[in-house]
Amino acid sequence: MSAADPLQVLASAGKGESTRSVLRVIILALIAGAAISSRLFSVIRFESIIHEFDPWFNFRATKYLVANGFYNFWDWFDDRTWHPLGRVTGGTLYPGLMVTSGVIYHALRALTIPVDIRNICVLLAPGFSGLTAIAAYLLTNEMTPSPSAGLLAALFMGIAPGYISRSVAGSYDNEAIAIFLLVFTFYLWIKALKQGSMLWGALCALFYGYMVASWGGYAFITCLLPLHSFVLICMGRYSTRLYVAYTTWYALGTLASMQIPFVGFLPVKTSEHMPALGIFGFLQLLAFLDYVRSAIPSRQFQTFLWLFAGTAFGVGLLGLVVATSMGFIAPWSGRFYSLWDTGYAKIHIPIIASVSEHQPTAWPAFFFDLQMLVWLFPVGVYLLFQELADEHVFIVVYALFGSYFAGVMVRLMLTLTPVVCVAAAIAVSHLLDIYLNAKSPENPDAAADKDADGKKGGKAGLKSTNKPLVGIYAGWVKSVIVSSFAIYLLLFVMHCTWVTSNAYSSPSVVLASRLPDGSQHIIDDYREAYQWLRQNTREDAKIMSWWDYGYQIGGMADRPTLVDNNTWNNTHIATVGKAMASSEERSYPIMRQHEVDYVLVVFGGLLGYSGDDINKFLWMVRIAEGIWPDEVKERDFFTARGEYRVDGDATETMKNSVMYKTSYYNYQNLFPPGQAVDRMRGVRLPEVGPQLTHLEEAFTSENWIIRIYKVKDLDNLGRDHASAVAFDKGVKKKKPAKKKGPRVLRVE
Amino acid sequence: MKTSVVFSAFLSLLSLASAATTSSDRKTYPSTFRPPQVFKNANLVHIISLEKNYVKESINVLVENIDKSPQNEYYVPFTADQLSRLGGVEVKDRKDGSVGPFVAEAVELDQSDTHYIRIRLPKALAPGAQQALGITYYLLKAYAPRPASIKQEDQQHLAYAFSAYAPSAYATSKQKTDVKFPSSTIAEYTKLPGSGDVARFPQQQGSKLTYGPFDEKPAGASQPVAVRYEFNKPVTHVSRLERDVEVSHWGGNVAFEERYTLHHRGANLSALFNRVKWQQSQYYQPNTWALKELKFPLRAGSADAYYTDVIGNVSTSRFRSGKREALLEVRPRYPVFGGWKYPFTIGWNSDAKSYLRKTPAGGFVLNVPFLEGPRQAEGVEYEQVQVRVILPEGARNVKFHTTIPTQSIASADVEIHRTFLDTIGRTALIIQARNLVDELRDRELLVSYDYPLSASLRKPLVVFASAMAVFFAAWVVGRVELKFDVAGKK
């Protein structure tokens, strides 16, 4: 649509270069505006709020950076997470996102515009998505001379759901800026490669450094650029341009990446970074060979080449193997293995598998996230194959690898989206360039060709590119093609809007429901409970919850947590899993050892909220079992028939677990006797609810989503808690069953 | 028309209180200071009102000069603890309503537990003459919940201790003390032997207890008594209220923002919060001592109300804007029980027309309520209140006048506040007040200032000039040739 209008305007109005560039700037600005505004659904529907889980940590870190300055942030040791271990936060995060927000914040302050840091964080992702659209425009313009392709790519990039999913307002995550950096780094790489320019190479390295500072996904660039170079070399396209571009990028980029404490010496130590180093060395060899070839006769050169290449490869491989086995180079990490074997994580690292975004992608997700781009994407790649200059090889390689990774892990759909947008834009613009041309081709002997062309246009108009003399003559063919594409584009826009509005714009901290009269009702249980914690508990009260809520508790409740979404310490998480999965008597010592004051569980039974802890419970059990296979057994939580049940037929282990007890404690009293129902799992609960001995209910939110329990202090009289509770309830102390001696008549 | 007359009348008052000077200056006297025994309280009625969650006391006293010379300084004693919680002291002439509030100021003694409030009579009292004084004041944080922690479904009781004889620095011939309660359920009270025709004190009439009348008591006489009564309402205490009033001439808007740090000073929960019980009590017994709701009546025409706290918007609020009054109803995220805390922020916009007037002399007068807290049946007390009136950039000659008792005003300063695209910063009048209660919520704050046209044009000009500078710089940068190869230029 937006591509068609300016073209008509162009045709009638300005033919001059400056008019075109003004139009282009205006269109780009409009696209950027559309990209930003389509991400604001949640702000308009709810409020300017940070979404989900990870962004809460980024937000908290940003606030710390703004409050304490950069150097304190760099050295930040956070003792309010991973109690009692703490976390060297400054050295274990990617600071790019926070620093970007901090810079924007201070710049606005310098202009005396008092913007809240929260609003900067909320709107950072939409803002950068506008920049991503422009970067996609630049990248596409490097691929094709067609002026409309870049604009289409920018448009696709701006509204493709695959990218929106990680960049709606409030989704303050590393990806928010990383995708812009990814696309822009690629653009600079292409620019450097095409011109063989050291300046562009250095710029590429600069943005690569920024990317490394921002997102762990930088490894994608680290692997893709060497791969591209390698493919080029294999195609016999080694050139000094490639040498200059690559060596400049690698040398400066690696240095830049090593400045980030979290990355440090990884670029020379881990396997993920080895391809880049290998290609760097390989390029040196090639350059050397190139020099030698110019110096010695070709027959000698052949022998020299084989000998030299074989030795170099052998030595290099041997060196790599030795260095890996000696431990100088770390072997591939688990997360990396799971990229090749999707079942790896499930068996070896349950904690990775427990995250939904690490699951393999289901095929409908591709249509959901890309819609018509899915089928335009191969067309675009094919068209690039037709020309296959150096830069087109890049897109082809990127497309192959992007597709593979997107199929392996849901979240990597994000890295695929840019190349899909670029390729699809090239395909669409190619079609439109042909069919939107109002003039018939001036061909003197047109009569003979006409039929053939008409057929061709309808069926395979793409081929016509190869034969410049062939053209589309029938006006109706043009109008059919153009209008059908206009409809596709319209449908695409509608699909994107629909997906964004329905799937990706929920803050998940706040839930929305409708009242019978149609008005919106906000379910705000998370913040209710977090605010209660923040205001009415001790400043250093330790909260034990499953790791999903760690960042939120840190950000909203401002209380120390045992585990959080950083998941760097599997054992610590397993400890929490064990405490949740064991009985109260057994988890009480664990909680005392970790100085836990409150236990927080999420319970969706009253509301039918599916993301609750009972549904996640099996992961806790599995992770705990991974460390303590003797003490926690997944099998014990299933009934004899292998069912996972929470009603009266639940296993004893299940019923006695802290998680079960804290979820259902007192819940039965909300219903008439015997009518308690878990609306999430749709089962009727036993009439008598669980009894707590070592914990006591401290707070339950309005819709029971968050339940907070206080861990009792040691009993004043030195009793164990079970007997203390029994005493308070007036239960007679059970006499030991195997009492010796005859029965005595009770005398009172 | 009429209002402008009223405004110009106020202007004469305004000239008295220039904002640059702090309004109340406290004197410290040596600990040996005793008020000269020049007065006698001929008759005294002490009314202690415990109906709200702060104490309102009024002492109606008939003062007689027993000295030989005319006297104009009357002292009322308070303990140091009381003085720190004392607010809103107002003294009026009981007989003649037209005589404005008398000047009342604190006289603090060095290292002594007894301090005084000195009342200056505008006209010295001749020897033997009598003067009827009505002294009212509020005491904050006056109660203790007894028992200190109770169950969620129990009734809350508060205890208050005071002296059956009114505190006075002078001998009192005749006096009585009335204690008003919120309900007739008075669990306990101190009983005293009676005098005269009353067998024993106190006497109860509905929700009122009367100690007295007592006969002649010397200066400083005290008879400690305590009462404990049912108060099944929240004891809402705002430890700090920051109220911002931002005036925009260009926008024709007055923006209000209030940040509350709210505490519940009532009974704590003996067992932790139980949601089942709470939900059940919502149906069966909605009357509770937990704070569930706050109602803020705002001026008519208020708009864009918001209600947030430190982690974002709070969805449990309703804003109704009517012709006569706008009402903002907010509910805390959770019911606030004794010992709990709930800080929050509210804000709204109003049309400047209803607050701002231009004076004939060319200046401006802003008339806003000094305090606009919630209107609760049980009352609200404010320990510290900071009112910040942010005037437009370049406003000068700021003066203010308020009908809040001067004893409660701690300080007033004019500072610079920098915000949206300011170059020299906005003039901000900051008034610190302490120990206020919601009964004073309709008291006015009048601020007069000059705002020349040149100041109002400053911002558009600055913005325009800087935009032009940016364009010019961009043009200059665009002209710079960076390439070595000039021939390759297109």
Automatic annotation (TrEMBL), chain A:
The keyword Iron belongs to this UniProt entry's keyword annotation: no
Listed transmembrane segments: 21-41, 92-108, 120-140, 146-164, 176-193, 242-262, 274-292, 304-330, 365-385, 392-410, 469-494
Catalysed reactions, as listed in the record: a di-trans,poly-cis-dolichyl diphosphooligosaccharide + L-asparaginyl-[protein] = N(4)-(oligosaccharide-(1->4)-N-acetyl-beta-D-glucosaminyl-(1->4)-N-acetyl-beta-D-glucosaminyl)-L-asparaginyl-[protein] + a di-trans,poly-cis-dolichyl diphosphate + H(+)
Residue spans of biased composition, Basic residues class: 731-748
Localization per record: Endomembrane system
Main location per the UniProt record: membrane
Enzyme Commission identifier(s): 2.4.99.18
Keywords, sorted A to Z: Glycosyltransferase, Magnesium, Manganese, Membrane, Metal-binding, Transferase, Transmembrane, Transmembrane helix
Pathway annotation: Protein modification; protein glycosylation
Protein family (similarity comment): Belongs to the STT3 family.
Protein name as catalogued: dolichyl-diphosphooligosaccharide--protein glycotransferase
The organism of origin for this protein: Remersonia thermophila
Lineage: Eukaryota, Fungi, Dikarya, Ascomycota, Pezizomycotina
From TrEMBL, chain B:
Highest taxon above the source species: Eukaryota
Pathway per the UniProt entry: Protein modification; protein glycosylation
InterPro entries: Ribophorin_I
Record's signal peptide: 1-19
Pfam families xrefs: Ribophorin_I (PF04597)
Broad class of the protein's primary localization: endoplasmic reticulum
Positions of transmembrane segments: 461-480
Subcellular localization(s) per the UniProt record: Endoplasmic reticulum membrane
UniProt membrane topology term: Single-pass type I membrane protein
Keywords assigned: Endoplasmic reticulum, Membrane, Signal, Transmembrane, Transmembrane helix
Biological role stated in the UniProt entry: Subunit of the oligosaccharyl transferase (OST) complex that catalyzes the initial transfer of a defined glycan (Glc(3)Man(9)GlcNAc(2) in eukaryotes) from the lipid carrier dolichol-pyrophosphate to an asparagine residue within an Asn-X-Ser/Thr consensus motif in nascent polypeptide chains, the first step in protein N-glycosylation. N-glycosylation occurs cotranslationally and the complex associates with the Sec61 complex at the channel-forming translocon complex that mediates protein translocation across the endoplasmic reticulum (ER). All subunits are required for a maximal enzyme activity.
Subunit-structure text: Component of the oligosaccharyltransferase (OST) complex.
PANTHER family: DOLICHYL-DIPHOSPHOOLIGOSACCHARIDE--PROTEIN GLYCOSYLTRANSFERASE SUBUNIT 1, RIBOPHORIN I
Family label: Belongs to the OST1 family.
Full protein name: Dolichyl-diphosphooligosaccharide--protein glycosyltransferase subunit 1
Organism: Remersonia thermophila
Source taxonomy: Eukaryota, Fungi, Dikarya, Ascomycota, Pezizomycotina
